[in-house]
Structure formats: C-alpha cells, structure tokens
Amino acid sequence: MVQHTPQAVWPDDPTPLAIDTAPVPAYGRGSLADLLPTLVAGQGVPGYSRLMGELAPADRNCVFLIDGLGWQQIKDHPDEAPYLTSLLASSRGATGQPITVGFPATTATSLASVGTGLAPGQHGLPGYTVRDPESGRLMNQLRWKPYTDPRSWQPYPTVFQRAHEAGVHTAQVSSPIFEHTPLTEIALSGGTFHGRLSGEERMDLAAEQLGAADRSLVYTYYSEVDGKGHRFGIESDAWRGQLMYVDRLVQRLAEQLPPRSALYVTADHGMIDIPFDEESRIDFDEDWELRAGVALLGGEGRARHVYAVPGAQSDVLAVWREVLGDRFWVASREEAVTAGWFGPSVDERVIGRIGDVVAAACTDVAITASINEPNESAMVGMHGSMTATEQLVPLLEVRT
Question: Cβ neighbours of residue 286 under 8 Å, at least 6 residues apart?
Fold first, then answer.
C-alpha cells in the first residue's frame, strides 16, 4: 500500500481554481466515500466512523444519487429546480453543502466510492477506462468490458453488505437494467435490489423501504440528467427539462419520508460543456506529439490515463507537460499518488491501473480521440477533472 501526505485542500465553495495547483478532494472529511460510513456509524454498524461529524445520526437513512448534477448546476438554475434550491441554504429541517466526489469525477469511480466507502486508490476503479495490468488491455469500468472477475477487481465488501449483516434493513431502488451488472455487484450490492422503471415508482418504493424497519439504509438513483447533459449539454432545453423533472422527484420523496428519517440528495460528478473547436477539443488521434511513445490512452476527455511504451515514460511526461501545461494538470503516476489525487493510500493491485502520466483538465478543454472513441468524442457535456464544477456536488439533507 502506497501512502501519501496531502499537499492541498479543496475550497469550501466553487470558486475558480489556479491552474498551477491541483486541489486534492476532501477524502476522509467531506467526500462521497465518507457519506455511507458516517450514516451507518450513526446506526451502530461496527467498523465505521462518523467521518462527516456534522451529519446527525438517524435511524433511517436514504441516499438519492442524481447522476451528473453538480452543486454549481443547481445554483445556476433556481427557476428549474426550486425545491433543490430551497435546500441549498440551511433552514428548518433541511441543510445543504457541497462535497467533493474524488478523482476522477466520473460515474464508475464515484459509485464505487459511494458503495464501498473507500477512495479510488483502494477500491480500484480509478477512471472510466484503465489498463488491466494482467492483460495489458484497457478495461471500461462502467460497461465492464472486457469482462474480468468483479471480486478480483474490487475485493472489499460494500457498506450495504456490512450494514445488512449488522441487522440494518438495506435496499437499493434503481432501474431494473442495473440489477445484475458487475458494477452493482462490487459497489452497490447488499440487502435487496428493487428494480423500477419510472422515477416516481422509485421514489415511492424508496420511501416504503425506508419505513420497513426501525433501522434502514436505502439507496436510489436517477441517470438521465447525466444522459441529457452528455448528449445536448447543460445549457440545452433537454437538460433543463430533466432538472425540472428530478426536482419534482426529490420533493416527492421528501414528502413521503417516515419518522426518524434523513434523506441525502447527492451526485457522482458535475458537468461542463466543451465547445466544438480545435482549441477546446484536442484530438489525440490526430496529434503526433501527444501520440509519440504512448501505448494506450485511457480515462476520458477531461481526465486521461496515459500508458507509455516501456522506457518512454519520462519523454511522454515531458511532451504532455510542454503541450498541455497551461490547460491541464499533468503529473507522473508517482506524483499523482503522492499528491493524493486517488486518496490517502493506493493499494498495490491498483498502482498499475493508473497511467504512467495522468492529465486532468483545468480549463474548458478536453482531449478527445475521434477514431478510437467516436461516441465519447461527440459528447457536448463532459466531466472527470478536479475543477470545482466537476468535483463539487450537493449534499442536501431533509430530516423528519
């Protein structure tokens, strides 16, 4: 296990960041990975600590994760999200604050952090696509392709599993298509899974499951805010429509909470629209400088894992810094690990999954790959890096 000493602290609000200093997510005190451990510690589940001490214990806890809905997106759209906006500032029975998601700010990584209570360096899903050291191939950790044994890839138990074993009624309420996926198995399993197609059905069933026992832990999820953002951008009517819809879902769930409950509304990352021009989208497949010495390009547009051919690591790092240094934080694997980008420690089995070079965008730019990643390269909205817009997500609380 590789240890590190933190070098930077995340800001408390989404202010612009200096491009020469990469911030470090608030692992251990205010990140997604700290949420469930804090909640179940308050329910008496052994082995966990209340890492976020400002969250008062509750007998019944519900986490509603909205894919792709950052803190800044809610603040920028009060008319479309009046109920969520009302939760941003502390008021009677409700509080709101931003937390960090961890690096990279992407769905597979964040869902694993939520469900295991571990930072990426431990649970081992440190990106959208990463190299499998055993096969030498890129592994898509969201779609789980090419297939590898889930329990070998992520061996730690989930918080849901340990809560269930401790006698807490535990349930996940989500789309039926996620019930048997490897990502669900290694990140979100434990207790019972309930598949429902519509958002309204999920909210109603989540409230029902929450009241099914004296101690309960319920997780529910909605994906289409992220989907519309990727396809149309966060300034589109389609995205705004999804925000309006999910705002009503949150209120529907909040109004059905049984007594002694706490609802936490959060997200796995924010999102930023990237313009379709040569300055904003750097095409790796057409850039001979960036390709030189690179065996595999992993990650995603705003958070790249770069795997060099043997012996070329230092040259690749130097070129990427020279070409991208004013638009990306560019670090060697050792520098990224030491700085704590992936958490307080990195397991030995995870080290080889991290790129020889790690590049995280600090301006409105992305490294696309038009030939090898045509679908991802066509996305309007993107995420992954350590800017406030991508890192800071809501932690909105409603209590009864």
Answer: 370
Tens digits of per-residue pLDDT, 268-299? 999 999 999 999 999 999 999 999 999 999 99
Q: Give me 310's structure tokens.
A: 């043997």
- 73 alpha carbon, distance to own chain's centre: 15
Q: List, for residues 22-63, the tens digit of each pLDDT value.
A: 889 999 999 999 999 999 999 999 999 999 988 999 999 999
Sign of CA dihedral 251, 11, 227, 129: negative
Q: Identify the CA nearest to 234 among candidates 17, 71, 69.
A: 69
Alpha carbon of 364 to those of 18, 109, 245, 380, 387: distances in Å?
13, 22, 28, 12, 10
Measured CA to CA, the distance from residue 261 to residue 372 in angstroms comes to: 47
What is the band of 93 on the pLDDT scale with cuts at 50, 70, 90? low
State phi, psi for 90 to the nearest 5 degrees: -60, 135
Largest Cα–Cα separation, the chain: 61
Of the candidates 109, 257, 81, the residue with the CA atom closest to the CA atom of residue 186: 109
C-alpha–C-alpha distance, residues 136 and 133, integer Å: 5
Domains, the chain, in order of start with CATH, read: 8-125+132-272+387-399 (3.40.720.10), 281-382 (3.30.1360.180)
Q: Alpha helix locations (H) across 255-373? A: 288-291, 313-324, 333-339, 348-351
For residues 54 and 136, the model is more confident at 136
User: 61 with 48: CB under 8 angstroms?
Assistant: no
Whether pTM exceeds 0.90: yes
